[in-house]
Amino acid sequence: MNNNFKSGFISIVGRTNVGKSTLLNLLLGQKISIVSNRPQTTRNNIRCIRTTGTSQMVFIDTPGFHKPKSKLSDYMVEVAGESYKEVDVILFLVEEDTTIGKGDEFLIEKLKKEKTPVILVINKIDKITKEEILGKIKLYEKYDFIKEIVPISAMKGENINELVEVIEKYLPQGPMYFPEDMVTDRSERFVISELIREKILRSLKEEIPHGTAVEVMLMKKRNNKDLYDIEANIYTERENHKRIIIGKNGSMLKKIGSDSRREIEEMLGTKVNLKLWVKVKDEWRDKQNILNSLGYNKKDEL
After folding, report:
1. I need a surface site. Which of 44, 130, 183, 196 has the fewest CB within 10 A?
2. Which of 133, 51, 145, 39 has the alpha carbon at shortest distance from 89?
3. Considering the domain 188-301, what is its CATH architecture?
């Protein structure tokens, strides 16, 4: 290994829906963290690994900071708050808007107390002019704890190489923590459950997706066949939501299953036989035993 090899942990923090997962997938060169236009899409800290000949970056994608409304929300905010403890670099992701909102102010107050280098990443610059980008930079230049400011567009891929160079600059020399072909420390089951949940988020009405969770019950390769059998439960809080998820004559569930299967096959590189069931778990977001069984357990995150 290169004697100058660098490695470290990088936390990506920001308000909900600022593009953290989109940026992470771009940095990795493949999709690991789910993406939708709904706030609070990411529920867990997800560790993802980018390895090159000169460095290994372990990124932590976090739930966005928001006002908790359930035990699940409490969990999401808590793991987000823990994500920037004991890391080497913090990426503070903000949007292209021309003000510093209350959510960003909340994060600024937290981050200014940290000794870890903070890199401000201004996302979605493809939506604004160069003059507006300079104006956004000026808003944050007064904060001493921000070491660098990098404007990017995660959607368009603008300035990503520059961002990587800045991150490497602040990483210490160190070992390769994970095998070089490893891209996440999460299991395939977890990634598959998240891909299915993404399709639910993209397909259903505003009030329903945040009341859903997905649990993969079976994942098994058939003997002597290039085929996986996967079975998963979709949990929702209400009977009428279950009917909406299934749809008329099963049309919505069929669409969710078909969209999910295509992406799972691409990820696994093999054919998939996917079966989905929808079950009601009343008020599951406020029941700790159910949250634990679904993997929303803070002890497992740290």
Report:
1. 130
2. 145
3. 2-Layer Sandwich (3.30)
Annotated binding site for GTP: 14-21, 61-65, 123-126
Angle at 41 between CA 37 and CA 42, to 5 degrees: 140
Amino acid at 37: N
Spell out the residues 6+ positions from residue 223 whose beta carbon is closer than 8 angstroms to its own: none
Residues 251 and 204 sit within 8 Å (Cβ to Cβ): no
Q: Element (H or E) spanning 260, and its range?
A: helix 251-268
Structure tokens at 298: 């803070």
CA distance 51 to 180: 6
Phi, psi (deg, nearest 5) at residue 146: -85, 115
What are the domain boundaries of the chain? 6-170, 188-301
Residues 6+ apart with CB under 8 A from 187: none
Distance CA 153, CA 99 (A): 18
- The pLDDT profile of the chain, 302 residues, written as one tens digit per residue, is 567 899 999 988 888 778 888 888 888 887 766 544 444 444 456 678 899 999 999 988 665 444 445 554 554 555 545 555 678 999 999 988 878 888 889 889 888 988 899 999 999 999 999 999 999 999 999 999 999 999 999 889 999 999 999 999 999 999 999 888 888 877 788 888 888 988 888 888 665 656 788 889 999 998 888 899 999 999 888 888 899 899 999 999 999 999 999 989 988 889 999 999 999 887 767 767 666 666 666 444 44
Cα 57 to Cα 257: distance, rounded to the nearest angstrom: 33
Binding site, residues? 14-21, 61-65, 123-126
CA distances from 92 to 56, 99, 301 (A): 20, 15, 20
Q: Are 235 and 72 in contact (CB under 8 A)?
A: no
**Cβ-count burial of 23 within 10 angstroms (0-12 exposed, 13-18 middle, 19+ buried)?**
buried
